[in-house]
Amino acid sequence: MTADWAHVDRYLVDTLVGHQDSGVLEANAAAGLPAIDVSPPQGKFLYLIALSIGARRVLEIGTLGGYSTIQLARAVGKEGQVVTFEYAPEHARVARENLDRAGIGERVDIRVGAALDTLPVLAEEQPEPFDLVFIDADKVNNSNYVQWALRLTRPGSVIIVDNVVRNGGVADADSTDPAIRASREVLELLAAEPRLDATAVQTVGSKGWDGFAYAVVLGED
Ligand code: SAH
Ligand code: DHB
Ligand code: MG
């Protein structure tokens, strides 16, 4: 099935999504970065979500070469800002080049280091609340990242967690795979946390079978 899914993704990109950022994916490959960016249809979906909610401030955890970052940065507009966290200096360097080449580099602040070390530094700065958080880094820390997202958002903000379905592994309660266990843990946190209401949507496509969780930060009522 994966071949069919990839075929349909190519059709959707040709028809609807466009090829505007294929140069970013080529630059990432040339620099030896792993091809684990969101797919182009998913990237466009992130862009449209950010546009739909009028996001001006976006927090991203896991930059890689900035493919998803560019989609988010386009959506926030000239006055907007994306703060994105990346562990690997080489990934951050490639991302900076890609972002600047895409013409939206000035809207993006890349923070290099382990996000659990650098998020407290951001929090100390008491930034304006973020409208949208996209969590797409080391999966074992997903629950920690949701807790940070709660501190850095406001009622009405959206939190998206990538890769929570993991080829269906998420439904296996006995799995010993740390990423699957972390997926289950973060979904259980989203369910249990009274300040959030959430769902998860399965996806297929060029990246196989996976899915994302989508949560909204609730207000008083
Ligand atoms: N969001 C990107 C893909 C991110 S891939 C896109 O769709 O284009 C995951 C990234 O998270 C990798 O670049 C990896 O280096 C980074 N990462 C892994 N552990 C991290 C950590 N502890 N803190 C911050 N980034 C981390
Ligand atoms: C992997 C990570 C991702 O964020 C993703 O979207 C796909 C794959 C990985 O680590 O393999
Ligand atoms: Mg991902």
How would you characterize this protein structure?
The protein has eight helices and seven strands. Helix 3 (40-52) runs parallel beside helix 4 (67-76). The protein has helices spanning 2-17, 22-30, 40-52, 67-76, 89-101, 115-124, 142-151, 178-192; strands spanning 57-61, 81-86, 108-112, 130-135, 153-161, 196-203, 210-217. With 221 residues, it is an alpha/beta fold. The protein has a seven-stranded mixed β-sheet with strand order 3-2-1-4-5-7-6, with helices on both faces. It has a single domain (2-197, 207-217), classed as Rossmann fold (3-Layer(aba) Sandwich), CATH 3.40.50.150. Bound molecules: S-adenosyl-L-homocysteine, 3,4-dihydroxybenzoic acid (DHB) and magnesium ion. 3,4-dihydroxybenzoic acid binds next to loops.
Summarize the structure.
The protein has 221 residues and is α/β, with parallel strands linked by helices. The protein has helices at residues 2-17, 22-30, 40-52, 67-76, 89-101, 115-124, 142-151, 178-192, and strands spanning 57-61, 81-86, 108-112, 130-135, 153-161, 196-203, 210-217. A 7-stranded mixed sheet has the order 3-2-1-4-5-7-6, with helices on both faces.
| Secondary structure: helix percent | 40-55%
Assign an overall shape.
globular
Number of helices: 8
The class by helix and strand makeup works out as alpha/beta
**What is the beta-strand fraction?**
15-25%
Bound molecules: S-adenosyl-L-homocysteine, 3,4-dihydroxybenzoic acid, magnesium ion
**Which regions contain 5 or more consecutive residues with pLDDT less than 50?**
none
Count of strand segments: 7
The CATH topology: Rossmann fold
Under the CATH scheme, the architecture is 3-Layer(aba) Sandwich
Radius of gyration: 17 Å
Average the pLDDT over all residues and give the rounded result: 97
How many individual domains?
1
Straight-line distance between termini: 44 Å
Full CATH superfamily name: Vaccinia Virus protein VP39
Element pattern in H and E: HHHEHEHEHEHEHEE
CATH class: Alpha Beta
Q: Major sheet, described briefly?
A: 7 strands, mixed
